[in-house]
Design a protein that fits this description.
The structure holds two protein chains of two kinds. Chain A is an alpha+beta fold. Chain A contains 13 helices and twelve strands. In chain A, α2 runs antiparallel to α9, α2 runs antiparallel to α12 and α9 packs parallel to α12. The chains are: A alpha+beta, B alpha+beta.
Amino acid sequence: MLRQAIAITSLSLRSVPERWGPSLVIIVGLAGVVAVFTALLAMAEGFQSTLKSTGRADIALVLRGGSSAELNSGLPREQATLIKQAPGISVGDDGQPLASAEMIVIAELLKTGEKTGSNITVRGVEPAAFALRPQLTIVAGRKFQPGLRELIVGGGVSRQFEGARIGETLRMRGSNWTVVGIFESGDANESELWADVEVAQTTFNRRGFSSVRLQLDPASDLAAVKDALTADPRLNVDVESEQQYYSGQTEQFRRTIGMLAGVVTVIMALGATFAALNTMYAAVGTRAREIATLRAIGFGGTPVVISVLIESLLLALVGGTIGALLAYLLFNNMAVSTLGANFSQVVFQFEVTLELVRRGLLIALVIGMLGGLLPALRAARLPVTTALRAA
Amino acid sequence: MTRTGFILANLWRRKTRTVLTLLSVVTAFLLFGLLQAVNVLFSAGADFVGATRLVTQARVSFTTSLPMRLLPEIEAVPGVQEVMWQQWFGAVWQENTQLIFFAADPARLRRVYPEYVMPDQQWKAFEETRTGMIVGRNLANQYGWRIGDKVPIASNIFPQKDGSKAWIFDLVGIYDGKDEEWQRNTNVGWINHAYFDEANQFGSGFAGTFTLKLSDPDQAQQIAQAIDARFENSPDETKTQTEKDFNLGFFKQIGDIGLIVRWILFAVFFTLLLVVGNTIAQSVRERIPELAILKTLGFSDRSVLGLVLAEAAAICVIGGLLGLAIATVIGITIGSSGNFPLAVDERVWITGLISILVLSLAVGLLPALRARRLSIVDALAGR
């Protein structure tokens, strides 16, 4: 039976080029489904991996209780000082706790070629901020000088927004800020502008901070620091690891994109299944005589079913691969941005991962299977005599 | 047999094929309807607010609050009829559901937004109840709130004077929209700014953004410029734009939804073109001898062309209308649940009908031309 199946399959596959019209329908249909599916999820994937790689597990992020995002949080100066003195914090070279109190505000920048502004995070940082983010390097220009209205700009912002290249000035609250450097970090920090926190506080008329980052001592752990800070009656704060904080922000976006991808894929898959059914019915139809002849000379029904199924699966696989390839060529590494948890833009890149391609191909195969099954059964049940007599 | 009957009979001779093709068209237009509705929501979705109002925000970003002391200066600008202010409250319901709540002055809100429809006594109650709040119909339905309820709403930004972020408001009114479109957007809650200003820990005097009603909407441009010029070079520089542009800009920040939708629709239509086009082409191929006989009987070239075109159009029109109809029903279901103001409305239908027309021509034309060119002798001879 196996040999029969192989014989019929190779026969039918060899005739595919003669029926290229209908076969193309399956291929293009599935390429469409897989391309859309892969591209949409590649967007979610890229967003997630950008934010995930931003946070570190050994850094505690302290916000005012119930704030959920740095933008909403506010810590008075004296509380920030208290927080830095918590037990279990590493000590820096200067003998001070390795901690950075930071203030974020939002500035509107114009995306290149657009007329409406986009929100960009401006982060005022203390010197220790750089020690807490070793992945961050200045790739052009220099760091800002404390006390001056100078900015360094993340690579993502610099590439996508106007007025964010070295030497250019940005206007915020009636004063001019000069861009003196570009930094890269390969994560969400690259979507920000950084400045000296003291200068930022004066300009924006704020006395407090948004958050405090603490480098945990290897001998201590997050739970201990958290307990110490939440037990302090002078404070009302939320403490989590930087990693938890950034991972938590991906959920909403992932859910939204996941839902969109789900709905679109299901509807498109339905359409593609109908198209595949059409193709395979047509394929069986045009080969009715040939199949009947094979049956007449002794081939069984099962090999016929198998050969039709294999043909439809193969076509589906080809279509799926083309779709995944298209998604990869068109979208992989394409930089886009969306609103993140701080009401400001997070720049990220599409990531077409192997896992996504695998899932896309699986969908293609399922559709190929569904589209091939009914026509295959019809082919096997074809009454030999009528089929031979027809046309 | 009538001509219509003939076309239908032709379609029906391969039932499976016609039904399957029809179903592909239905799914494609179902998707088209839904995606186009999303697109309209994000791009043209701000149209309905009209251009009669301006929004003045801090130039640096709308998340920076403007101080209340700008109010008299803005009010003094000629052409400004009425000014209200609104402060984002950062409302959170229960665990972590963010709600859209603003603090505003009730009387001014009513004058600036006549599109909000609410009984007089509820407006009055909102003005007189310090801890009062009003919510849109959709929001009230979604959470089952009734007038008279005490609703606990937390803020993720503003603590009360005692440091607690849990606020409680009295629901004194539920407003509706003046028309269907405004009704879909009744998912915003309003609290009393006077109370908020006094009770929050961060101090008073902050207005958030200002919304201006103009006596003459045609002057919007000049008035916006006049206001921004007034505050130039101060720490509180402003950016004034029409409410529509403000909303558009906000949606745009979420991402280029239009671009994503266009890419998906392109993929869908390209596929569809192939599926339907192939089916029609195949059915013409199979019927070449028949078409030749029709011509022998005296059917003109043009009427044969018409027959084939009509077949293609029939599939596209029936499938397309069905798909759009299903999308409309789904849109109504989603829209009335209050989660997402989706609506497959006349704008979606118009683009949908145009697409049906284009698709019919695109898939029918080639096979139809082939049928027209058919030479009787060759076709009958099977060449």
